[in-house]
Amino acid sequence: MALRKITIDYINKMIKRNGFKFKGLEMCELGNQLIMDDYVPFKVAKKYYESLGVLHTSIDWNGKDGALSMDLNKPIDIGQFDVITSVGFMEHVENESQCWENIYNLTKMGGIIINILPKKGNYIKHKCFRWYYEEWCHELVKMWKYDLLDIGIINPKKKKGFDCIRCTLRKVV
What we know:
Elements: E1 2-3, H1 5-17, E2 26-30, E3 34-35, H2 45-51, E4 55-59, E5 81-87, H3 96-106, E6 107-118, H4 134-144, E7 146-154, E8 164-171
Parallel strand pairs: 1-3, 2-4, 2-5, 5-6
Antiparallel strand pairs: 6-8, 7-8
């Protein structure tokens, strides 16, 4: 899992567009994300966001880079957050239903969930449990009663066959 400039820009834009400020923002990152581009002087996303004043928590079963070692295939309870980010993470979770329940429970009312998901039809080799499509995001909105704030395509690696779906949701119920 890794963040690139285009992904960081998207996350930051969604945070600002939805009325949040970095200082004091409570953010939960799914996976311990590394920064791949020389965009910022940090190699770990946790350090980058903490430098902006974000109260940052990351969750990854491996416990690396300051992440809480937890399995999102099982129920978890560590409080609630203003922003949840899931970048190149969800497709690696075997129990997707439980993970989405965890995400719902981790998100404060009015909080946002920023997803970057591999698009179905990609030509890349990528070990994962599933691929996604835009209609799936609309089904997620109906199922969990989220507001859909943004949906579209993003290509973090700027390579043919590496399209991802960007989907930002707000918890309203």
